[in-house]
Amino acid sequence: MTIPMVQAWFDPATNTVSYLVHDPASGEAAIIDPVLDFTANDAHIGTGSAETMLAAAEAQGLTLRWLLETHAHADHLSAAHHLRARTGVPIVIGQHITAVQAIFAPLFEADDVTPDGSQFDRLVADGDSLPLGKLAIAVMHTPGHTPACVTYLIGDAAFVGDTLFMPDFGTARTDFPGGSAAELYRSARQILALTPETRIFVGHDYLPAGRSEIRWETTVAQQRAGNVHVHDGVSEAEFVALRTARDATLAAPQLILPSLQVNIRAGALPPPTADGHTYLRLPVNELGSLPLQKV
Ligand SMILES: N[C@@H](CCC(=O)N[C@@H](CS)C(=O)NCC(=O)O)C(=O)O
Ligand SMILES: [Fe+2]
User: Burial code of 113-140, b = ≥16 C-beta within 10 A, e = fewer?
Assistant: First the structure.
């Protein structure tokens, strides 16, 4: 089997991991979950993190083929739109992004966002395959954290987004609209049914107590043996109880409001108003009124 090369960048502001993965035989590459730099105190947007990844791809002579989003992130802005504008490369996301858009476009009165996924270039479903040189990108629909979450399996490397985190941290929250602890359990088990040597690359690391270095790579075998939420032997009912109890303690992510209005637009900012300025919206006392997650 051809083994893809994987390079990772960790964003300390949001604890997000972005990846550049390539087929060594052809030099074809994909960027996964790139971060758009954003500081909430001054609403400043920067493209430094995205440009660093692009420069790395260029320095290695890689041909960028795909911009892959594992889901509409609720904690950081996506740089996919910026990278598409810079390179012309298509943005890929799970087809159920339409459900996420249908929930969040009204919250922001984002009248420019038709909830049909047309802001992206390719909507993928479970079982779809995209070419990457001699490799294929196999799509697994892995909902639970959000309804649209997908895992991209490239050779022996699974990019799981926010389904599984490192074994000592566990799993992602399931309390966002359209989230479901039971679905997340089934998605996790589907990932853990891959061959034990499969490398797993996670979308965040939150440095649990007792560990001092950030990590993002593990394996199916390690997750099955030691994931604190879904190791082998944990039943769906046990997981749902544990996940639901933990979710009840979590505050909304710091950047949920800026992130979702940008990420349902594939990382584009809202259109400028008549005065030529661009504004992000902070709907007041609205977030809590969204439809609850599925059980
Ligand atoms: N403190 C972080 C939390 C971000 C967050 O909620 N992350 C999601 C993934 S988008 C998650 O699953 N977190 C797991 C947890 O905190 O247990 C922030 O404010 O940005
Ligand atoms: Fe997430």
Answer: bebebebbbebbeeebebebbebbbbbb
75 lines ligand 1 (CB under 6 A): yes
Atom of ligand 1 nearest to the CA of 75: 20
In angstroms, the CA 166 to CA 202 distance is: 7
Number of CB atoms found within 10 A of residue 273's CB:
9
Distance 74 CA to ligand 2 centre (A): 5
Q: Would you say how long the chain is, in residues?
A: 295
pTM value? 0.98
- Judge whether 170 and 230 are in contact, CB under 8 Å: yes
pLDDT per residue as tens digits for the range 111-154:
999 999 999 999 999 999 999 999 999 999 999 999 999 999 99
Distance from C-alpha of 204 to C-alpha of 175, rounded to nearest angstrom: 17
CA–CA gap between residue 191 and residue 90 (Å, rounded): 26
Mean per-residue pLDDT for 12-38?
Answer: 98
Q: What residues form DSSP beta bridges with 45?
A: 38
Quote the mean pLDDT of the chain.
Answer: 96
